Predict the structure.
Amino acid sequence: MSSFESIGCHPVINASGKMTALGASAVTETVARSMATAAQDYVNIDQLLRRAGTVIGAATGAEDGVPTTGAASAVVLAVAALIAGEDLTRIEAIPESTGVPNEIVLQKGHAIHFGSAITQLVRLGGGVPIEVGQVNHTLEAHLRGSISERTAGLLFVQSHHTVQKGMQSLAATIEAAHEAGLPVIVDAAAEEDLRRYISAGADLVAYSGGKALGGPTSGFLCGRADLIAAARAQYAGVGRPMKVGKEAIIGLCTALEEYRDGPPDSGRLRDVAQYVVDELQGVRGIRSRVTQDEAGREIWRATVTVDPTEAGFDAVELSRRLREGTPAIHTRDHLANTGSISIDPRPLREGQERIIVERIIDIIEGESGDHS
Ligand SMILES: *Cc1c(COP(=O)(O)O)cnc(C)c1O
């Protein structure tokens, strides 16, 4: 029995992706073991934060880093760092920040909701979000025209949640900011490439530990040494209720070391997706194929299309029945109302693809039983 079942939670097979609502990532044996060892021991936390910063720096190419509870708190610490620096009085006043530059400029198409609102993170860090341009249209002039002596920095969000057209590039954002002597924070929560934004010239970059990286519930900020020192200093202020555990820090460091060779083997993802497609061949009312990630990442999934007249129900209903069985199977279903769901092999544990295929076949056959 899993730890979750022992307190009454239903077992879950996650075929939907790195979803916070399903526990984000399941860590490797090595990461889990490092976390267990850390949880049973003591350490000088200040030293641990600094050593972890060195590990984060090595993994990202940044001068330094600081571990956090997630990318969301990394954004909060980053904003607070730009506003309060290492000044203890200001640190203890955040989110109150009158009298110092506190405006954080971002493009309107980047003012997203990822599970919560990014502008709320800016406010929590003491920032006043200044959304510039229009939802689908931001010009360089909007960015430059909104920078003033009140500006503390610019925020750039790299995510599939943002509006994908009509926005200014990261390069243009960095250029506008640096010309004004201002830093740029990049929220790269779910991105696979841990070096790209630092090498592009971003001053602070926030990542999730539990998304592409596949580590524990955690995150980190990496970037310029002086700004990271200021971000670390926020743990004496607004960062305190976002305290990251010693076991999460060690798990994050272990995951970063394991990640050094890049994201998990896309060949395996393809094989699992192909297995699902092969096994569903000829099943009544079901057509399936291997598809690549919409955002072009090296992620391969099995997309399952349901023909309601043949199957007797539609894709929305298939997704519901999969979710309501035991174990509950969660598929990627944001396109279910257009007739397809997909199986994401990344979070599947060994052999779970077989359980999914069997369940889909059972559901289809059960439906034909009902009608015969
Ligand atoms: C998921 C996400 C976050 C929050 O990351 P956590 O690690 O869950 O705190 C922030 N920004 C974006 C764009 C995200 O996708």
About this structure: Residues 20, 70-72, 114-115, 157, 159, 161, 187, 189-190, 208, 219 surround pyridoxal-5'-phosphate (CB under 6 Å). The chain is about 40% helix and 15% strand. The chain has a mean pLDDT of 95.
